[in-house]
Design a protein that fits this description.
heterodimer; A: 230 residues; alpha/beta; eight-stranded mixed β-sheet; 9 helices; 8 strands; B: 692 residues; alpha+beta; eight-stranded antiparallel β-sheet; seven-stranded mixed β-sheet; 16 helices
Chain lengths: 230, 692
């Protein structure tokens, strides 16, 4: 019951549609530093955890402790958004669903798609359900990462796991011709979902850049919680 | 024993397995002239280290029991506890930390901060034990003490600061530069017993000056005098730096890092100096007890010899002269012939022979004053008991003890072995609260329970060697539990009239899941069950908890409420109501959707980065849940939760998957429900066992 309520409150349900998340091959959440890419990606992951799906969160910036903290915060914000919830029930649910979350912390040097492949292979070998999505946070899209993206595409094909990226843009950069940030422009064909976050007044505006008929829709989010502003 | 407590140190040596704890202890005993020849842990002489007094310890090269010993260094008494490094023996580490005032944390200069170092560090935090670090094995290939000091910061959150710089590393390791005295120390003689103090080599001088600046910077936070000296750019004396670092260590705000190689006899003497300079004396430590006569209020214990005595028994050993009880005296003084009270059972004892230990040799003493560690003979008690003067009723705080998670059946070979086995089990259960034993009434087998495969293996070996009890063992078994998942009603009548006195009792109510192991609630009104039969009902229900009706595993987490019943004026009896309760339990239990729970272990794997993916795969294949993986330089640390039943033989699998380069530690985490498919396997296995 609580699971259902939380799913209904999820900003992702309204902005992208929960099924849409796992249908994608590559998805991206774009914004400049500090606006809330990672927090939004955590909300995306939470929608899957609440559906008893496995998720893998790979970070090139955060330690495991920080990743776990981000998920705890994201879950608490979601729970708080539906008013009163029996705290024991909320904790029990988190204890259950958080078991499906795997955090992996790398740095720029040690990030290696081969290791991720080894890991995903082991799911197949043990006949376990594959992670529904994999979040990759901290890849530098200002550099040439063609090889990494090609390898990740291959993982997506082989294991049918959607991959969502945090893509950092820059305040002083103009948008490209299509209205996409330059980091996405050159790779737009790889991504079938993309969402741009930008501060507007005291809120965060989430603009759907790529998502079929949802494209160009926009929503307002509370910057503190990343929940939809009613 | 000296009474000037400023000149006493009670210290432990803790670290990850194979970091060289016992080797270091051995060197300390050699340099303090307690022993006259060094024996290696796995030496060719076959003697083994003195601190590893058990034959088995010497053979395996691991420390099983904490051997306590004392030594003298520069007119100070150092009581030294060598603690086991393997996680299965963690209770030994916990017990030692409880009675120690300071710890030397040993780290390997190649492997750095390892998983067990993290466990030991958490235990040190729990008991607020100040520590200094010693980066050992600087002679090994790949040694990097600076990296290890950094890991102390990043992995354990210590404010680590280098007190020395190495003079050469790996096979060129010759000595250390002392950053306080700004001198170079070399260790000469066959066993490094002569310390040659020389000027710092030219090529190290700049680095030493820089490192000294960093040290003074870090230390200045704990001394205004030092800060003033820095600001005034006046001379900074050795004493000033030492005093500031000592203050920081006492508050657990700074961890001074020393370097060397115990195996190559390098830099052990400066480490002993550091123990005196930086680790606390008993006077510096705040100890508390609970006053059982005063609402369990906390009482501060003073290292005052004239106050009533308070002492804690922290370890038992069976020696050739009877039970040897290791104690730490916190207040007062134990003198031969003193009467003491064991606050656990109120029994009075008379302190007989008092000794202090030097590994397996003992030295008689007249008294054990506050602040000292010693041992008593001929006292019947359990580990963790508090002894006090008859005028007070204090108890030291209970130690954190975990429940056993693995069991093994043992069968003695003959009658003689049976008698010896009983003696051994009686001793081991008193010595180690995490080791338990019982007899399975159905099979008649003796079952031993413990914290891991190695834990039980060692006790079986000790039984054979120390007690000549030849036993055969069964396969290790996981300590499964049963529990219910929903509320259910029961209404059971026990009625028997087969000649003679009849039996009658009816018990009705409901059972439901709860957090506690077992709760019994009596809501009977109007005398439907007479009061004198209620305890019989509780007893009947409680008896059923021992062996669950589903798979005969112990049942936990059940609250039974009785709210109705009936009796017969002539035929009702305690026995009849016990039987009725048993019937009611069976009736309710199967309706309450019982499930099987299994112990889940926290497993931490440390592996070179290239094997990270495959190690995570191994966890996946074992029904494990990976909580996270963090890369630290060339190593990855994978934290996971894995059912214990899947972990048997894991060390072999891990070795072959990682070319022997990865290692893991495992400790109990929680009980979780077994998946249906596994539950079915367990049922099948149980049925086969029964048939056999």
């Amino acid at each position: 019951m609580l699971k259902q309520d939380l799913n209904l409150r999820s900003p992702i349900e309204k902005i992208m549609g929960i099924d849409n998340i796992t249908d994608s091959k590559f998805g991206a959440v774009l914004s400049r530093a500090g606006v809330g890419k990672t927090r939004f990606l955590v909300q995306i992951a939470l929608t899957q955890l609440l559906r008893d799906q496995k998720i893998v969160h790979v970070s090139l910036d955060d330690s495991i402790g920080k990743i776990n903290l981000r998920y705890n915060e994201g879950y608490t914000n979601l729970v708080d958004s539906i008013g009163y919830v029996d705290p024991q029930k909320a904790v029990r649910l988190w204890d259950d669903i958080s078991l499906n979350k795997v955090g992996i912390s790398y740095n720029d040097v040690t990030f290696d798609t081969g290791k991720l492949k080894d890991y995903l292979k082991s799911f197949k070998k043990a006949e376990l359900p594959m992670p529904a999505i994999m979040i990759i946070d901290g890849l530098n899209f200002d550099e040439d990462i063609t090889e990494i993206l090609e390898n990740l595409q291959a993982l997506n094909r082989e294991f049918s796991t959607s991959i969502w990226f945090a893509m950092k843009t820059h305040r002083d950069e103009a948008m490209a011709k299509d209205g996409y940030p330059v980091q996405l422009e050159s790779r737009k064909d790889l991504f079938d979902k993309a969402l741009f976050l930008q501060p507007v007044d005291n809120k965060i505006q989430a603009v759907v850049l790529k998502d079929g008929n949802r494209t160009d829709q926009s929503f307002l989010l509370d910057p503190a919680t990343m929940m939809l502003v009613e | 024993m000296i009474r000037d407590l400023k000149r006493v140190r009670n210290i432990g040596i803790s670290a990850h397995i194979d970091s060289g704890k016992t080797t270091l202890s051995e060197r300390i005993l050699f340099y303090t002239a307690r022993i006259h020849k060094i024996n290696e842990v796995r030496g060719k002489d076959g003697v083994g280290a003195v601190m590893d007094s058990m034959e088995l310890e010497r053979e395996r090269g691991i420390t099983i029991a904490s051997a306590a010993t004392y030594c003298e260094w520069k007119k100070h008494n150092i009581n030294l506890i060598d603690t086991p490094g393997h996680v299965d023996f963690t209770v030994e580490v916990e017990r030692s930390l409880r009675v120690l005032d300071g710890v030397v944390l040993i780290l390997c200069s190649v492997a750095g901060v390892q998983s067990q170092s993290i466990t030991v560090d958490q235990q040190m935090k729990r008991y607020e034990v100040p520590c200094i670090a010693f980066v050992n094995k600087c002679d090994r290939s790949g040694a990097n003490p600076a990296k290890v000091a950094k890991q102390l910061k990043t992995k354990l959150g210590h404010n680590s600061v280098l007190m020395q710089l190495p003079i050469g590393l790996e096979d060129k390791h010759e000595g250390v530069v002392d950053l306080v005295a700004m001198k170079a120390y070399y260790f000469e003689g066959d066993n490094g017993e002569r310390v040659a103090i020389k000027d710092i080599p030219e090529d190290l001088l700049e680095a030493a000056k820089e490192a000294r600046e960093e040290l003074i910077d870090a230390a200045s936070l704990f001394s205004e005098e030092l800060t003033d000296a820095i600001l005034e750019e006046s001379d900074i004396s050795e004493e000033l730096i030492k005093k500031a670092v000592r203050t920081g260590v006492m508050d657990r705000q700074i961890t001074p890092v020393f370097l060397g190689s115990a195996y190559k006899n390098k830099a052990i003497q400066p480490l002993l100096d550091a123990v005196l300079d930086y680790l606390p004396s008993p006077l510096d430590i705040h100890n508390e007890a609970i006053d059982l006569d005063n609402n369990e209020e906390s009482v501060v214990l003073e290292s005052n010899f004239d106050k009533p005595t308070v002492a804690l028994a922290f370890k038992l050993e069976d020696g050739q002269y009877g039970q040897l009880t290791y104690i730490r005296v916190y207040q007062g003084c134990i003198t031969k012939g003193d009467t003491l009270v064991n606050t656990r059972d109120g029994k009075k004892i008379k302190a007989g022979r008092l000794i202090r230990m030097h590994a397996s040799q003992m030295e008689d003493v007249e008294e054990i004053p506050a602040g000292h560690i010693g041992a008593m003979f001929g006292v019947d008690c359990a580990s963790g008991d508090t002894f006090v003067s008859p005028t007070i009723n204090y108890s030291m705080l209970a130690m954190h003890v975990m429940e056993p998670v693995i069991s093994l059946s043992i069968v003695p070979k003959d009658n003689k072995a049976q008698i010896n086995m009983s003696k051994a089990l009686n001793r081991f259960t008193k010595e180690d609260p995490t080791f338990k034993t019982y007899v399975d009434h159905e099979t008649g087998e003796t079952i031993i329970q413990g914290m891991g495969e190695l834990h039980l293996e060692v006790y079986v070996e000790r039984m054979k060697r120390e007690y000549k009890a030849e036993v055969t063992t069964g396969a290790p078994r996981v300590a499964y539990r049963e529990t219910i998942t929903q509320k259910s009603l029961f209404n059971y009548t026990h009625k028997k009239q087969t000649g003679g006195a009849g039996q009658f009792g009816r018990v009705a109510g409901f059972m439901e899941p709860c957090e506690e192991d077992f709760e019994f609630v009596n809501k009977i009104t109007g005398g439907r069950i007479p009061t004198q039969y209620i305890p019989a009902c509780e007893k009947g229900f409680a008896a059923c908890m021992e062996k669950g009706p589903k798979l005969e595993f112990p049942v936990t987490g059940v609250r039974v409420t009785i709210d109705d019943g009936a009796f017969h004026a002539v035929d009702s009896s305690e026995m009849a109501f016990q039987a009725a309760a048993r019937g009611a339990f069976l009736e309710g239990y199967m309706k309450a959707k019982p499930v099987v729970k299994e112990p889940i272990m926290k497993v931490v794997i440390e592996t070179p980065n290239e094997f990270q993916g495959s190690c995570m795969g191994l966890i996946n294949q074992r029904r494990g849940i990976i909580q996270g993986s963090q890369e630290e330089g060339v190593m990855s640390v994978i934290e996971s939760q894995v059912p214990l039943s899947e972990m048997f033989g894991f060390s072999t699998v891990l070795r072959s998957a990682t070319q022997g380069k990865a290692q893991f530690t495992m400790e109990f985490s929680s009980y979780k429900q077994v998946p249906q498919s596994i539950a079915e396997e367990i049922i099948k296995q149980k049925q086969e066992e029964k048939k056999a």
